[in-house]
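During the no-cost extension, the postdoctoral fellow (Dr. R.K.) reprocessed legacy sequence entries with the updated structure-token encoder. One reprocessed record is reproduced below for audit purposes.
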Amino acid sequence: MYFGGIEAGGTKFVCAVADENQQIVEKVSIPTTTPEETLAKVFQFFDAYPLKAMGIGAGVVLNGEIFQGIAHPEMGHIYVKRHPQDTYEGTCPYHKDCLEGLAAGPSLEARTGIKGQELPEDHPVWDIQAFYIAQALMNYALTLAPEKIILGGGVMNQEHLLQKIRQQFLQQMAGYMETPAPEEYIVRWGLPNESGIIGSLLLAEAAEKE
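Re-encoded structure tokens follow.
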């Protein structure tokens, strides 16, 4: 498994792939021309490698601003109660069986030998996945009482998983805290596969205004 990195600049894009020991396997410098031409070459470079998905990240938007305390929140590393049928040790290099270790993309392939996007909808691992994600959402709801919870990432492009998460959220909350209907409260991202780049553009615009 490999990791990919990009140093993006106005003159060149430096793209590199490293192994799990952070030893660079291949590196390329791509001259910055038009966005379409430059990114096409970046994608072409990385398409040759099975890059590793890193984990689970989350953030809090408060009064229209991204919340940050002494550091950015690491909400993917909370501990969750184990699913009774799950014996997997976890993938997190720091905590093993935190939320990220048990529910991030690599855990799906490690349990089944099948990449998440290739797993059939009726595979039992999706119930385990939904159990952990819903448990985390319940913890966030009880701690922060947010107005809405938005889920993103490639795995959330699957409608069946979203439905399982909503069902598990209701079951695990057990009526303790009143929230809007799950269909309104727990929703999928509105910019599938583009939220990261759109977010970076919005941050650039905000920095220019400061």
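The chain has a mean pLDDT of 89. The longest helix spans residues 125-144. The remaining legacy entries will be reprocessed before the final report is submitted.
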